[in-house]
Specification:
The complex is a heterodimer. Chain A is mainly alpha-helical. Chain A has 19 helices and 9 strands. The radius of gyration of chain A is 42 Å and the shape is elongated. Chain B is an alpha+beta fold. Chain B has a single domain, classed as HU Protein, Chain A. The chains are: A mainly alpha, B alpha+beta.
Chain lengths: 482, 96
């Protein structure tokens, strides 16, 4: 606090020179002034000095306190105190260096989220395409995995289908007795069937039936090759685990599920290879093996479909609750703004029918300022909307050739304050900046002594009561201040 | 006591026309304001001192909505009464 203190004498000197009176007169005046104010206060009055402030008395209640040294309780008697409440004129002048600052609400995050959500709802097509690409990526990923892990089987995929379709009665006949022999297995299989049917109700009935058949076919190799059962069982268990997990699926994240499928896919080739060799050597029933492959494949596909479903669901969830990228959200909010704008445009045009048309802006060519209007904020949606004169005013590059005043930048000068003085609102400083662009390199740091010119602006452009004007100024502000 | 009454009282004391007093008062106020804007402390003997104090920025929480607002710093004029004036006021009885 290294403030220079001015004494009464200096004030007297200053007043004397300013009011061109003798120092003695000024001194007398000051004395009388203070005496009068004091008198007024002592009389219990409130003394007000124009454009300076108000003096008044404040009663401070008596209170108890403790003597710091002795610890004794002492009573501080109530007393009057002179308080000074500065007039708004004085207040504003003193606070000028900070006048451009405004209180900032910090907890506006939930509001923002709401806007993003609404924006996303307004553009569902975009979300769908986003999801589609995601699903595509996942599909290719899974296909790559399955292609890597089942290198030996693909030969059988194609014939398996045809053979299976050609001889279904045979397989069923073969299966039926086997099923009766092995009583432990069918229950398990049936359970599986049930679950699959439950999960895939959209499937057509014939398909479901074939899957049933396929399921039954699966038992065949198991029965024939008894020495192979542990491996098969392991596989079955694996499948069962997944089956059991199915009802809980919505809760499970996609990660573990994908792992399960990978596991399944990886396990598969081992038994199937064995099946292949053993079946070929022992029995002439290759269709069974192919059926096994087919059933497993179909199962895998069911799982893939399920997982994709889940992933897409999760994707939408994530999209709705967290914004994935900033760019995305800002784009949406811009869209939102434009939509609002278009509504106001319509309203304005409608009201324009009943009110005299504002004369179009003169189009002089003196000082042309290139304004970086970001075109993407006026996208296809708003371009189709009728554009009224104010909107045109906003869109046209502003041209400044009339100036109402010029101002020299001093220490502490700010474009916002100048703007407030000339246009009534500090939001419109951007137009002053635009008109003086060649002199101001950075609107935040203007060299002291710079002479700036205050442009004459269309009153419709700087209408403080019109939210669109403020909106436009804000947009420009965002462009210039990064 | 408003500005008019103050001028009238002063004019009566100084035996000077009100217009002169009004001009002088205005000049004084302007001078004081200028000095305060330049971040100077003004001390009036036997009355008190005027000084500019900076209120730091702060975080305020709306009690009912819980919205936190950042209040920017500001400069305010502060008046501190002198001890002479304080002593004069001490004798004043509290009536209410």
């Amino acid at each position: 606090m290294n403030k220079e203190k001015i004494s009464s004498q200096e004030i007297i000197d200053l007043v004397a020179s300013k009011a061109s009176v003798s120092k003695r007169a000024a001194e007398e005046f000051l004395k009388v002034m203070i005496a009068t104010v004091e008198e007024g206060l002592l009389a219990g009055e409130v003394v007000k000095i124009k454009s300076f402030g108000t003096f008044k008395l404040q009663w401070n209640e008596s209170r108890k306190s403790v003597n710091v040294q002795t610890g004794e309780e002492i009573l501080i008697a109530g007393y009057y105190k002179v308080v000074f409440i500065p007039d708004s004129v004085l207040k504003d002048q003193v606070n000028e260096p900070f006048a451009h600052l405004e209180p900032v609400e910090l907890d506006s995050v939930p509001q923002k989220n709401e806007i993003i959500e609404e924006a996303e709802e307004s553009d569902p097509l975009r979300i769908f395409t986003e999801q589609a690409t995601e699903i595509k990526n996942l599909l290719s990923e899974i296909q790559a995995i399955s292609a890597n892990s089942i290198p030996t089987t693909p030969v059988y995929h194609q014939p398996a289908e045809t053979i299976h379709e050609v001889q279904p009665p045979e397989t069923i006949q073969n299966v039926q007795p086997a099923e009766t022999k092995q009583e432990a297995q069918p229950s398990e299989i049936k359970q599986k069937e049930k679950i699959i049917q439950d999960v895939q109700p959209a499937e057509t009935i014939p398909e479901a039936q074939t899957s049933e058949i396929k399921q039954k076919d699966e038992t065949k190799p198991e029965i024939v090759e008894n020495d192979q059962t542990p491996e098969e069982k392991q596989q079955d268990e694996n499948l069962k685990i997944i089956d059991d997990k199915k009802p809980n699926e919505p809760v499970i994240l996609q990660e573990p599920l994908e792992k399960n499928i990978e596991k399944e896919v990886e396990i598969k080739p081992i038994p199937s290879d064995k099946n292949e060799s053993q079946l070929i050597s022992d029995l002439p029933v290759t269709p069974y093996l192919e059926n096994v492959n087919r059933t497993k494949r179909s199962k895998v596909w069911i799982w893939i479909v399920l997982v994709l479903f889940l992933v897409s669901g999760l994707g939408t969830g994530i999209y709705l609750f967290y914004n994935p990228t900033n760019e995305f959200s800002t784009k949406y909010s811009l869209n939102k703004i434009n939509e609002n704008k278009s509504i106001t445009e319509i309203l304005n045009t409608v009201s324009g029918w009943f009110s005299p048309k504002p004369k179009p802006k003169p189009t002089p060519v003196a000082v042309k300022v290139v304004i970086p209007i970001d075109r993407n904020e006026y996208d296809s949606i708003s371009q189709h909307q009728p554009v009224d004169s104010t909107q045109l005013l906003f869109d046209n590059p502003r041209v400044y050739n009339d100036f109402i005043a010029s101002e020299r930048i001093k220490a502490g000068s700010r474009l916002t304050i100048i703007s407030k003085r000339y246009y009534g609102s500090k939001d419109f400083w951007v137009y002053i900046y635009e008109a003086n662009k060649e002199r101001i390199s950075n609107p935040d740091h203007i060299a002291i002594g710079t002479l700036i010119r205050i442009p004459k602006l269309d009153p419709r452009l700087i209408d403080r009561s019109n939210p669109r004007c403020l909106e436009k100024a804000k947009q420009l502000h965002d462009i210039y201040v990064k | 006591m408003n500005n008019k009454e103050l001028i009238a009282t002063m004019a009566g004391k100084m035996k000077a026309p009100k217009a002169v007093v009004a001009v002088l008062l205005e000049t004084t106020v302007l001078t004081c304001t200028e000095l305060l804007v330049e971040d100077k402390t003004i001390g009036f003997q036997s009355f008190g001192t005027f000084e500019v104090r900076k209120k730091e920025e702060r975080l305020s929480v709306h009690p009912s909505t819980q919205i936190r607002t950042l209040i920017p710093p500001k400069l305010v004029v502060n008046f501190k009464q002198s001890n002479i004036l304080k002593d004069k006021l001490k004798d004043m009885p509290h009536h209410e």
